[in-house]
Amino acid sequence: MLGAKPKLSAQQAVSQPPAGDADQQPHGFVPRPFVYAGAGLMGGGYASLAAKGGGGLRIDSGHFLASAQGWYDNGHKTNDGTGNNPKGHDRGLVGATYYRLSSGWFAGVGARWSQLSTTNYTKGGWWPTFGGGKDYFHKTCAVEDCIADFSMRFGVDYVLPGTDHFNALQGPLLSFYMPSPSAKGHLFFRETIGIYEFHKTVTDPSNKILTQQQIGSRSVTSFAELTLMYRF
Asked: What's the pTM value of the predicted model, to 2 decimals?
């Protein structure tokens, strides 16, 4: 019959529902608080394992994504060449905002601040970021009704050196959420993997020869986080 809606098969996958889909945007532009906790797998001369936790606010509307958070871990250095250095912790702030297309792809910018405090020294800095990713929704459709039965979000941000004059750390930071934070719900699995290049710590900027030697000595390291996030 002319004008009749086509019937959909009992199982149909779509990569991204429309921006106004009921399975998304749990509170639109209203910021929602969240907390998370888990383990950090550490490189860069740290002890291999650290406990990590944090919290903040996030927005996951149809086209606007944003988050702001603070975090803390008990990571400490075990191989930094400074001798006896038994205690340490990291703390930081992260903010980012993205624009998302109806297809699910998004892109944006952000900034990160962190500070390492140990028995022997304290250092830190600001790192600007840029990147993007995609939300994916798989939907089971019966006739005209669709229900999302699986979703995820994958993103890649590039961390720039910023004010990090000690090590000039930079590289890609991959993130993975399941389900996607754009889905309704409270509990989410969150994983991040950072793969960074950096140079040896600059210890005396007034010593030009030593500083050039340290800047010329470059290495690659990685960090990973496995956490559970609860959104209120």
From this structure: 0.83
